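User: Quick sanity check before I run a bigger batch. Here is a single chain. Can you write out its predicted 3D structure?
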Amino acid sequence: MKRIHYSWIILLIAFFSIIVAGIIRSSSGVFIVPFENEFGWDRSVISFAFALSLFLYGVSGPFMAALIEVLGLKKMMVLAMTTLLGGILLTFAMEQAWQLIFIWGVIIGLGSGLFLTVLSPYVANRWFEKRRGLAVGILTASTATGQLILLPVLAVIIENYSWRWAIALILILTLIMLVMILLFMKNTPREIGILPYGLEDEGQESTVVQKKNPIVIAFQALLEAVRVKAFWLLAGSFFICGLSTNGLIGTHFVSYCMSYGIPVITAASLLSFMGIFDLIGTTISGWLSDRFDNRWLLFWYYSLRGASLLLLPYALYEGSITLLVIFSIFYGLDWIATVPPTISISRQVFGIEKSGIIYGWIFASHQAGAAVAAYGDGLTYKLFSSYTWAFFLAGIFCVLESLFVILIKKSKKQIL
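Assistant: Done. Predicted structure follows.
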């Protein structure tokens, strides 16, 4: 019987690490109303804490990539998961709004940065020679799936017990994942005497080890990237991507549904439903990114996402569960299907060695957009007592963005 290549074991550990980090980060969507009710905090203040988290985990991406080069993958994953564990524990003791901002904005934001930004491309680039697109698709899918799949369970616990019991469940999952990383994670294929999956010639494997300051490494990569037009087009498209996913749907979808009288468990279930279809859609997107022009994949993804966001206010106004289910399927398939082709284009333009850090900067733009939506849409609700304009504008932005991604020059040689 043929042994499973250890690269797939690494993929599995990374997959579940990302899911746990995603659960922690995205659970904010079901905690907004409980925090508002128990502590009396203004929704815009709570939204600011979660917006700060989105921004910091995005902006930390390139530095996390640089730290991996200096400290190693396993040590960084242990440090990041331990940081998340500390943030979860401190949540039980918070009483003031500034504590929420520090714990969920800073600690959890930075702790989730490694898992939700550069871990996917790093594992795919270092552990896989073949099936890179598929590996990126699987790991990217876990990002949104983790953020969505457990939300109904958390909503039920909050509804029947309290938000503290929901936090306790997240704490247990974080502990389990920390142990798994400590036992089974490895830094590189060379560490255990193997080659990346699909690589047959040892001389082809990169052995570059960075010894520079990680901050210097990150900013050197940025200075090189800003001279390239493709970087600005990818960063701009990812700003809209973050604005229309994590910041908008991930943070405010449940509250938007509740404002139309839809129960929190039903709303969370719809969000979880999106996560199931995201796993399918993003994995397929990874497979497609190995075979088709990634620019046109992005064109269709943004166009279809924009159309679905324009449908949502109508579905809620009509109170149609059928239309909401259709939206959840349609939107879920496209949730972060944009990531595999974006990573693929980054790799083609900047090369394997530099693309991880440069993608971290591109993803920072993604999270800047997410932070703008998370806070801005909370402010919009405070001013107008409705999210409708926020969702309508996000849909328009997605449609417009689809026209910009096709301006990226086609790479003559695709690095797979």
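Residues 339-384 form the longest helix (46 residues).

User: Great, the batch can go ahead then.
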